[in-house]
Each structure stands twice: as structure tokens, then as C-alpha cells.
# Entry
Amino acid sequence: MKICPSCKLGFENQGRQEYCSLKCHFSECENKQAPNECWPWIGQTNKAGYGFFVHNNEKHLAHRVAFTLRNQMPVPEGLMICHRCDNPPCVNPQHLFSGTPADNAHDRALKRRHWNKGGETSTNKKLSGNYVYQIKTNYLTGKITMRQIAVFFGVAESTVQRIVRGISWKNPVVQ
Ligand SMILES: [Zn+2]
Ligand SMILES: [Zn+2]
# Structure
């Protein structure tokens, strides 16, 4: 029996595990700040500046763990977790969103435009062909429900239903 330094509960120590769970391990370096501020990871960071930690001999990227813990689901296949704040070590789930690699590029372009012009940013996410494609492929894996997909993509569940049933966007154009 070992005591978890995070939750202070006893647990069966398999191998050389220091914390009872991924969540407890993560929360030790989470470094929570005010809800709207960045929460810079206080553990190790990789070359790109992203926080990571090793749990159960597996390397976990901190911002991806932050996202999955908040949403209680794995990151859907083919999606990346991006930072609204452009701050790689940040693990504030409110600053994180999921998107395709194309969305990420689009987001960066939008931000650049925002900085250049000082103009407005678009928070209105239009469903591109890429999204429709991702929604369909994720639903077909059977690992995630329509409701979860809707939360991930920030659209109504009925929109997801129409897409997977082929009522809307029958032939998405994938860029
Ligand atoms: Zn614990
Ligand atoms: Zn942030």
C-alpha cells in the first residue's frame, strides 16, 4: 500500500507508480490560476514548450490530458488539441479546443489577421468539409456518441445526427 501524494488516499502500488491515477498525477503540476488566466504547467516541457509527464511508463502530453479530463472522453481520432491562448504550456481547459490540423492552421491565420489589423475575430465556426468528414469518421469508430461529438465540435446534436444519417452534407469536400 502506498499513499498518493495528491489525494492522500492509499492505493495498491503496481510497479513504481507514485500517484494513484492519471488525474492525481496531472493535478500535481496543473498549477491552477483564475479561470480566465493561463495555467502554465509546472512539470517538464518538451522542445515545443508543451507540458508532459510520464505515468505508468507512458508519456502523456499535459494539455491533451487536461482536455480529456474535463470532457471525460478520449480525443477523437485525427483531431488535435489547440490553444486559444497560443501558450503551449497552458493546461487551462477553457483555453483548449479540439480541431483538425486544417482548423489549427486556420486559427493561426485568423489570429495573425487579428494582430495585423486589430480587427474582430470570428468565433463563428462554419462547418467545413473537413469537419463533416471528421464527424462521420469519428462516429463510425463507435467509440464516441453523437452527443460527445457535438460537444467536441461545438455544434448541435441534431446537426451531428443529420450528418451521420446522410441528410446534410452528403458529399463533403475535404480540403
Ligand atoms: Zn490520488
Ligand atoms: Zn492559456
